[in-house]
Structure formats: C-alpha cells, structure tokens
Write a structure and sequence with these properties.
The protein is of the alpha+beta class. The protein folds into 3 domains: 62 residues, no CATH class; 140 residues, Immunoglobulins (Immunoglobulin-like, Sandwich), CATH 2.60.40; 217 residues, C8orf32 fold (Roll). Helices cover 23% and strands 29% of the residues. The protein is built from 9 helices and 22 strands. Helix 6 packs antiparallel against helix 9 and helix 8 crosses helix 9.
C-alpha cells in the first residue's frame, strides 16, 4: 500500500503552508499543479546563490511570486506609474504610529482602517480622485535610493471582472533601470472590503526587505449591473449602504461556522432593505420591457443572478472550504458558488411577498439549486420545465448555472418522472428528500 503524502506544501499566491499533496491551494483555491514540482528546486538554488533564508515565510511568498509572475504577465495591468514630485503636497500628514491602525477618510464615501506597515509609516496611502478613487501607495522617504526594483502586489477580497485569470491579485514590477520611480505605485479600481499591499524590495543581494500593509475599506458600494436577457441588454445602477457593507465585512468567521453547522441552508435566505431595493430595481426594469407574469419574472431574475455573479469558490471568497453566504454578502463580493447564487435567487423572489410564489433549495451531491413554486401553465416554460414534487406542492427547478433558463438543469442531472427523485448521469442520487422549502 502506498504511503500517504504528508509533506508540507506552500502556495505562492496566498503564502499559506499546508500538509499533504494538493492540486489546488486549500486556502485560496489557486491551481498549483503547474507550480508545485518546480518551486522547491528553484528556491533551493536561490538560497545557495544568495544565502537568503528561503524558509522565511515572507521571503518565500515574495520569491514565489517573482518566479511565477511571467505566467501572468500582461494580465494584471491595473497599476499605473506615478511621479512623487508631482503630488508631494498630497501626502498623508505624518501623525506617527497608531497601535489601533491609521484611519484615512475617503471623500463622501467612508474611510479606510489601515494596519501593518501602514501603522509604522513605512508605507503610506493617499487617496486621489480622477474622478474615481485611486490610492497612491508610497514607501517612506528614508528608503529612497536603497533598492534596485520593487514588486508591488495588491490582494483583495473583492472579485475583479477585468482580470478573469487572477481576479483577487494584481501586481507590477518597477525597476530603477527603466527610469521609473519605483518607490510608489497607484492602485486603480479600488474596491470595498479587505485588502493588503505588499512591497517586495530588491537590491544587490536580492530580496532585502518586504513591507506589508493591510486595510479595510468601509463605505457605500456603487455598482452598475449589465447583462443580456433573451438578446436584449439590461442594466441598472445599485448602491449598497455603508452600514450594510460594514455588517458584511465585520463577520466573525468562527461564529459563522458554528451557525452554519447548526442551521439549515434555508435559514440564510434572508431579506432586508438592500435585497428589497434590488428586487424593486429588477421589477421596475422588467416591467419596462415585458408584460408581467410570475414565471417570466422568475426567469428574468435567474438570468440576472447567473450573469452578474460569476462562479467563484468559497476558498477564494472566504478562505474556508464551504461558506453559506447571506444574500448581502454575495452582492458585496460580486460573485459566489452554487449555494450563494441559489440563496440570492430565493431571497430576491421572496421579497415579492406573493402567496402565488414560493421558493425552495435543492440539495444534491456536488450541486445546490433553487426551485420556485408558481403557476407556469400558461408560460412557454411549461413545455420543457423540470418539476420537483414537494410535500404538498410542485416546484420548478431554478439552476444557478449560467446560460440555463428557468426549468432547465445542468448536464448530467435530471428529475424522475414522478418528481420525487433525482438522477445524476442516469443513476439515482443517494439519500433522502433534498427539497428544502423556505
């Protein structure tokens, strides 16, 4: 019998160590197959040549990113270079270290709470408006002339649709040989939530210093949703209040996991003013373009959820393997997995407060779907819909997989003729009743 691999692994993206052999990082979800066999030998060679302690977590993170940054060259060009002299008068006043962090106000939209090397003033942040918010990140003046190049990295909790290959990481290498000011950089497209800024600084001896600043951006979130429904482009503007943003960000993960283990997924289908406001936007947009029917509106909402909230693993979003997001959390993150989108769909339809529309969740092996009870007899949906039998009612399947209409199920899944069982690849799925009415 082969022995189980109990070696230590290391992720060059999030910097976390883990036990065992993994094809993807168990913390951030990145695919490691093309890197894991090459990382050790490369770092060993670097250690031999430079006498740098490659077992240092900070050094391993920095060097790993440098080794593999060519893989992503050209994909993360969201930083723009900046000239210190032009903006010298706009620096944050040197108030001195603050053990509780540094607070930076954002014009008309909340504030940032900064810690790490922002607190020591080795790193500073200056907001600029051009007209959208940008952050100028700068190394302290005492480091001027000390380094030959600086690798700047930003990591966020918010999904960036402009960078599908690595939507949570952005970086740029700045070298003094190219006559650039390497000691500052501009971060565009600043998003709500947690972020970190890393400056990996290189000199004659290789990597010499690593500076890490962390922060949380609290404020209202303005978003424009655009998607295509049956050949017509749909769009509306939406604002999440700063109070709602803060509630989503200040979640205690341990308490959330305890709640998740002791509750049903249906208990996460909640509504509040944020969800009601989003449903009102959707309903108004729908009524401007179509004659209302429950079935057509449910199909419209399903398409919106599928199109505007890309499929992203929980390990990326919340750094755990399984996280049931409240609807507001999915809206703030801008993405989610099957469960998150099914919960959001149910919450949006629930705000109709109609006796004629009821929602449910369907729990299947490796898949979570929504379902909706309504009259579809006069709709074209009735000609193909997969319907599931509950205790007293029939529900139409609402699969959150992009591209599927109301009543359709993803490839491999089907419903039995009597509506009381499910099939996967032609075989009955094991277990008991998986329909959870809300």
């Amino acid at each position: 019998m082969a022995k189980k691999n109990t070696g230590k692994g290391f992720c060059p993206f999030c910097g976390m160590r883990f036990a065992g052999d993994h094809d993807s990082c168990p913390f951030c979800g990145q695919d490691l197959r093309m890197y894991k066999d090459d990382l050790g030998p490369i770092l060993d060679k670097v250690q031999t040549a430079t006498n740098i302690d490659m077992k240092s977590p900070k050094v391993r993170v920095a060097m790993s990113i440098v080794v593999f940054m060519l893989v992503f060259a050209g994909a993360l060009v969201v930083f723009h270079y900046w000239d210190d002299a032009t903006h010298a008068s706009e620096q944050i006043p040197p108030d001195g270290p603050n053990a509780q962090g540094v607070i930076v106000e954002i014009r008309n939209n909340g504030y940032m709470d900064l810690t790490g090397d922002f607190s020591t003033r080795d790193l500073t942040v200056m907001p600029q408006y051009d007209p959208d918010l940008k952050l100028i990140i700068k190394l302290d003046d005492k480091y001027q002339g000390k380094y030959d190049k600086v690798l700047w990295i930003v990591q966020t909790d918010s999904y960036s649709p402009t960078n599908s290959k690595n939507p949570f990481y952005q970086y740029v290498m700045k070298e003094s040989s190219s006559a650039l000011n390497i000691y500052s950089v501009t971060w565009d497209n600043v998003t709500m939530g947690n972020f970190s800024i890393t400056a990996n600084c290189y000199g004659d001896r290789g990597l010499e210093d690593v500076f890490l600043g962390k922060g949380v951006y609290y404020g209202k979130m303005d978003t424009t949703y655009t998607w295509n429904y049956n050949g017509t482009e749909m769009s509306f503007d939406f604002t999440m209040s700063s109070d709602d943003v803060k509630r989503c960000l200040n979640v205690d993960l341990e308490s959330r996991m305890d709640l998740q283990y002791s509750s049903s997924m249906g208990s996460f289908v909640t509504d509040n003013d944020c969800i009601k406001k989003m449903n009102e936007k959707l309903l108004s947009l729908f009524n401007r373009n179509y004659s209302y029917s429950d079935a057509r509106f449910a199909d419209f909402v399903l398409c919106f959820v599928q199109s505007c909230f890309p499929d992203v693993n929980d390990s990326f979003n919340y750094h755990v393997t399984d996280y049931w997001a409240y609807p507001m959390e999915t809206i703030l993150r801008g993405c989610g997995d099957d469960e998150d989108r099914a919960i959001l769909f149910c919450a949006l339809l629930n705000t109709l407060n109609s006796d004629d529309v009821e929602v449910a969740l369907i729990h299947l092996p490796d898949a979570t779907m929504a379902a909706v009870h309504m009259d579809i007899s006069s709709s074209y949906i009735d000609t193909y819909a997969k319907n599931v039998r509950g205790h007293l009612k029939w529900y139409t399947v609402a699969d959150p997989t992009p591209g599927l209409s109301l009543g359709e199920m993803r490839e491999g899944y089907d419903v039995s003729y009597d509506g009381r069982g499910f099939f996967y690849n032609g075989q009955p799925t094991p277990g008991l009743d998986r329909l959870e009415p809300i």
